[in-house]
Amino acid sequence: PAIFALRSSHFSTAAEPSSKQGSPPSVPNLIGGSFVKSQSSASIDVINPATQEVVSQVPLTTNEEFKAAVYAAKQAFQSWRHTPVTARQRVMFKLQELIRRDIDKLALNITTEQGKTLKDAHGDVFRGLEVVEHACGTATLQMGEYVSNVSNGIDTYSIREPLGVCAGICPFNFPAMIPLWMFPLAVTCGNTFVLKPSEKDPAGASVILAELAMEAGLPDGVLNIVHGTNDIVNAICDDEDIKAVSFVGSNTAGMHIYSRASAKGKRVQSNMGAKNHAIVMPDASADATLNALVAAGFGAAGQRCMALSTVVFVGGSKSWENKLVEAAKALKVSAGTEPDADLGPVISKQAKERICKLIQSGVESGARLLLDGRNIAVPGYEHGNFIGPTILSNVTADMECHKEEIFGPVLLCSEADSLEEAISFVNRNKYGNGASIFTTSGVAARKFQTEIEAGQVGINVPIPVPLPFFSFTGNKASFAGDLNFYGKAGVNFFTHIKTVTQQWKNLPGSGVVNLAMPTS
Ligand code: NAD
Predict the structure, then answer these.
(1) What is the pTM of this model?
(2) Three-state DSSP class for 84?
């Protein structure tokens, strides 16, 4: 299989003999610069969602191995924090070049483990690559402030310093982009890192990216990887030596991690679930809007935190519905490696079951099923976890399928009589990741921008994932913490401020001791 076909990899040499014997390779941890096989007797199968082939086995790393990874990161911090920021940036300059070199390999491995189409997997890598490019400017981004002569002969300045060992816990849906949201900025700010990839796709990107980072010159121990599930995550939250935790994933896990890690005094940034809405005004430009709804509703089989999962048509949905169904029917569902596939499978059998259950609950509570993808047959991939594009209309705010994140290729349609009514429909939902409006009216767009309760707002744009010089700014139940991922906020998350006040002047000894609060 394509997976682990790594150039000069510790992993490939370890993995190839066992794959030849027919048993799937064990995904290695990365501890102190070495890829090592876990001694744990417990592991989970990593399954190709299009074929059900067992691609590899991910270990449930032991506590000793976890402690060794944290120790390696703590040791590496002693010298890495003093490595000039220009040298740390140079590693990122090299890393972005190496990711470009190996982007096809990364994409193929992502598709094998995660299921998304190859083209989409390229996008996954590329959107992470942009954060690596951004990290190349860390010196400027972490510049402090200086005020000269705050008092007679006294200057005050602030400097940003790294925190120490930071950790990242990743979801399955962007195996390259999310780790790249985390470790490049963290390490270029001078921290060291322990990464816990998703157990569903632990190697396709993370292990390769770590190899590339080391090839780019990242010293041993600066980036470590430990695999596992809840126990490792809890160990990360509790560990005294870990200073900050970055999490991306579902609300259940995210709120647990946010409270457990912050109770231990760590800073936490927790990006969580979503229910992103589009409001379509009657004056919206028809073709562009339809294309946007179909692409953002069904792309990546709806498994994006910025997928558009609900559309509210102002002034009636009838004129849109047929066209929407026609466009969705034309999409090709197949394995992500098939060149003409528009959408691949969902991640697991359990995910498929959960999605189908939410579709059924919508039908039972009165929604109309305009297109049903639940029983789709995909020739050549009969065992894959496929769901075809599905459209439900007449959806109301209180339906289970609207309240919960579906995370599948399902588009919900609703109607509103006015923009006010549509905005209030959207704002009733607990999530606040992103929302878009499609209109040719500046007045409507501006009202929407002001009143909508979402952290990322699109105006005639379906998936407004900000580029790395901004930050990813989810809102309400979609985010916990106060310093967002990447951009200026990301740098602030990975550094703390020291404020220095210095006095350099010839001090005539007056012999008077003044105990009053100093004033200038
Ligand atoms: P998930 O929460 O199931 O898993 C994420 C990580 O948390 C994994 O590494 C997993 O091992 C760990 N985990 C899961 N349950 C845990 C528990 N009970 N205790 C401790 N650790 C636990 O999420 P997923 O299914 O992999 O990813 C999909 C979710 O991620 C969706 O909700 C999606 O919206 C969200 N997501 C959000 C963003 C964002 O930026 N807001 C981006 C991508 C994905």
Answers:
(1) 0.95
(2) coil
